[in-house]
What we know:
α1 (2-12) runs parallel beside α3, α1 (2-12) packs across α5 and α9 packs across α10. The chain has 21 helices and eleven strands. The protein is 49% helix and 11% strand. β5 (278-282), α15 (286-296) and β6 form a beta-alpha-beta unit.
Amino acid sequence: MAYEVIRAVTDSDAYANLLLPPRLARSGLAPNDAAFATELTYGTLRGLGFYDAVIAAASGRPVEKIDAPVLDALRLSAHQLLGMRVGAHAAVDQGVSLARANAGGGAGGFANAVLRRITSLDAAGWRAELLKGVTDPDERLAIEHSHPAWVVRALRQALAAEERVDELEALLNADNAAPRVSLALLPGLPHDDDAVEQPLAAATYSPVGAAAPAGDPARLAAVRHGTARVQDEGSQLAALALSRARPVQPGEHWLDLCAGPGGKAALLAAEAALGGATLTANELVPARAGLVRTALAPFDPAPPVLERDGAELAAEMPDAFDRIMLDAPCTGLGALRRRPEARWRKQPRDVPALTALQSRLLDGAITALKPGGVLAYVTCSPHLAETRFIVDDAVRRAGGKVQRLDTRAVLDGIARHPLDLPVGSNEGEGSHVQLWPHRHGTDAMFIQLLTKSAG
Length: 455
């Protein structure tokens, strides 16, 4: 099962977090076997850079020269040998069998030779071998923690902006750890003891969050009914920052501009309904729009879901919405724990196109915001080019018509426990919130609330 998912990830740009759970649900595997398959899949994808370097050294050839089906079998076995407590004989045998079954007998012999070479050193030994002659500190961290070097540099810069660069290794380690599973209990919908079969521990920060029990969250009736959702606490806080920035007035109109896959939209819809407001969701990609409709299905009536270019939609509706959520498309560097393959897909050359899109969407959202309304600019990335710089440029272009709201103060009034946030001293600093996996146990969400003046 792990091999099939990894083949789909590497061959078809699929996402493991979308493929693996339904396969596990259909498999009937015992809980310990399901956990083993999960670690095989996600652990291999998290460590892909390190394992590819080991495989290249052990085989004497670049991984690009190895047939893809064989390479994925080697990656799985490398993770078992270097990242899990699997017996060497079993790990080698499985890798050889997978290579032979998917690429023929010659591939099996090749896999056997490579894997036996890999068994000559443990993980620490291979890291030491690969680090020989590497002097650049970010290149060394990239090898040690299996991140692309450009991602290490971007994370270093983001932490340095908070004068916390000494936390870089802790952040990289957090990216490689399995994240805890959090639930959002949608306000106003039934998820009491009749719907949730066992008491749930409250989340650390989110007032609507809970820690998911061990095992498949879908075992809970509230999750199956859609009144509770698997959702990272950072995403919950981003939605609540918008919905609870100020009291809701009946009749308000809200917009989720880039709503896919629908987690924030569902929480916003629940919050809007409680206050007598209405939500419109928009998502350009049809498949993701379908996921938004599914997420909003428990509401009666379900909020409408449009399929429009977000910037064009917003520009056509000036001063139309009291609150707007812009969860902008981004590199996703803040969610590498949950989407481990994302770190290997993005390249530095992708950032300019994304920042241009983010700026275009934010300008459109500002146009669509009513004077005195609230706009949340959110990214699941701490990259400065996608966060602070985007907001700075948008505020500058608005020429005094847009002001930052004190997002930190809003979230301090929402969170169950204080968020450990740096104190900003320059203009605009301290008004945003940057969450971190190693510090808050959430995805690295960036949240900035904005408002627009009249005229």
